[in-house]
Amino acid sequence: MQPTKKNKNVSTARWKHILSERVQQLPASEFDQIMRISKENKNVISLGPGEPDFDAPKPVIDYTAKMLEAGKTHYSSTSGLAELKEAIAKKLSKDNRVHVEDPQTEICVTAGSTEGLILGLMTIVDPGEEVFVPNPGFLAYTPMVDLVTGFAIQLPLVDTDGFQLHPEMIEEKCTEKTRALILNTPSNPTGTVLKKKVLEEIADVIVEKDLIVLSDEAYEKFVFGKEKHVSFASLNGMHEHTLTLQTMSKSYAMPGYRIGYIAGHHELIQEINRIHIYTSLAPSTANQYGALKALQLPTSYVEKMRNSYAKRRELMLKLIHQTQSLHLAKEPEGAFYMFPRITEGKTSQQYAHDVLNRAQVLVVPGNEFGNKGQGFVRMSYATQKEKIQEAFERMWEKGF
Fold it and tell me: Can you give the residue ranges of the Aminotransferase class I/classII large domain (predicted)?
């Protein structure tokens, strides 16, 4: 893997005058290469990609097939199947303490929560307006803000503080042009779970500055420490200030289904649906039925995954603490990631490149998640315990 570069010179002279400035300014990412290596090279142990190693629940697969056989191959409404939105509303109420008065007007089903995020940004951000993003944070946040011609204001997070987000960061950097905050708990890539007290303090700033929070809760089911997941919209007064983004990809091991949803005030969702018509029109109908079946399953399906991840987390924590080249200042409590600091003085790219070439182990360079991720790597424990153990033994054998 080579160091990340800006994408300005991606095109030959033949195409440069055709490609938009928007696409030429997007940062080049190594993530596609990482995904390809992890799936194609059988000798490499991948601690890289961020998707469950479980298959979708069999009842979900069977029901999806049944719906296809039944002819459910036509468009749904733009905002999604009515019965799916009803099920999502019940789930939000039961699991997240987020009240949805009218599921048909307050929920939009999307092609994963990633589509929900960019639809939300397109709805509330005008050119030049500002959006707070965590740094390090999910690699799509800043490019998405760029794509809607907004300006991403980086909120620098540090490992010695457990990558916690503090309200004064928002307060100090807020201007008349600031419109929104992207909030991610549990966090990709750091595994941080924000404390309820911190979220309540952030909520006070959000009200004072009249901002919208895009609350990315993709890993809500995977919390392992003493903290519990708190949905931002469940906090007092936050319903009108929050767009809640959730997905079937992680909690139900259905990333290939590409089904997520966005929930919020009906006037915001109404405008999101207007944009949705001109993007994907509607998600896959059959896959929406699969999502409906998943939400009807006993909690044991999710608990089985969570318990497995908990054991793998304990193993990876132990192994990182035994690895001279890596250091964890605080133990992450959520998602299925570790984000250790490199102690050798190498850049993230150099370390990931060396580990891949010498130990045949794939990790993700931390700078993929923002410049504050430089000097770190992301390691996923969404792989079998035996593979995690072998990956670290390979690294130790090669002197890491």
Answer: 43-394
Query: Which runs of consecutive H residues, i.e. helices, occur in 210-360?
Result: 266-276, 285-295, 300-321, 348-359
pLDDT recorded at residue 49 = 78
Domain 13-56+300-397 grouped into CATH 1.10.150.450 = no
DSSP letter, residue 216: E
Q: For 66-118, what is each residue's pLDDT tens digit?
A: 999 999 999 999 999 999 999 999 999 999 999 999 999 999 999 999 999 99
Q: Report CA dihedral (83, 56, 307, 243) to the nearest 10 degrees.
A: -40
In contact, 368 and 293? CB cutoff 8 Å: no
Strands in the chain per DSSP E: 45-46, 107-110, 130-135, 151-156, 178-184, 212-216, 242-247, 260-263, 326-327, 337-338, 341-342, 361-362, 364-365, 377-380
Q: What gap in Å lies between CA 86 and CA 21, rounded to an integer?
A: 42
Q: What is the pTM of this model?
A: 0.93
CA distances from 113 to 81, 232, 261, 263 (A): 16, 16, 6, 11
Report the C-alpha dihedral over residues 77, 83, 89, 93, rounded to 10 degrees: -170
Q: Is the predicted pLDDT of residue 273 greater than 90, yes or no?
A: yes
Where do the domains of the chain lie? Answer: 13-56+300-397, 73-295
Token pair belonging to 212:
């919208």
Please check the confidence at residue 322 and state whether its pLDDT lies above 80: yes
Q: Return the CATH number of the domain spanning residue range 73-295.
A: 3.40.640.10
